[in-house]
Specification:
Elements lengths: L4 E4 L5 E4 L5 E3 H5 L7 E4 L3 E10 L5 H6 L2 E13 L2 H13 L12 H10 L3 H10 L2 H6 L1
Antiparallel strand pairs: 1-2, 1-4, 3-6, 4-5, 5-6
Helix pairs in contact: 3-4
């Protein structure tokens, strides 16, 4: 996988990462954060997490303190997906955003328009990382 990469979780969140995902909290792991997690990498390849395996079984203190677990991801892919399909996955995340996390800089419809207008993977990654903040500075 070529970084940076956009990850999109099944529960409706997304972010751009410059480093491989190698850990998560106990609660995130227990609630299936990695189940169905998808990546669009900088090369335009689409990957799906087929399995997330902790480096060691979590102990009682790990669970009690919600410690970070190191995980190894097994990925299926790569696949090719149309850029518009990935943009629609991001738009669905914006629609499901109960805390307005993704609408800090622009209105939801404007952010979705930015995703849909992306003409390259690099442009889509930029919009997903900035959430339209660069657009707000332009006006």
């Amino acid at each position: 996988m070529k970084l940076p990469a956009l990850w999109i979780a099944a529960e409706g969140s997304f972010a751009v990462t410059d480093e491989p995902l190698t850990s998560c909290s106990w609660v995130a792991y227990r609630h299936g954060f990695f189940a169905g997690l998808r990546f669009l990498d900088a090369a335009g390849d689409f990957w799906v997490v087929s399995e997330a395996v902790p480096d060691r079984p979590p102990g009682s203190l790990d669970r009690l303190l919600n410690r970070k677990l190191k995980v190894q991801l097994r990925l299926s892919g790569p696949e090719q997906r149309p850029l518009g399909e990935v943009a629609e996955l991001l738009c669905a995340c914006v629609d499901r955003d109960p805390g307005d996390l993704y609408c800090q800089f622009v209105e939801p419809d404007e952010l979705k328009a930015l995703f849909r207008s992306a003409r390259s993977v690099a442009e889509l990654l930029h919009h997903a990382r900035s959430l339209g903040a660069a657009r707000e500075r332009e006006t």
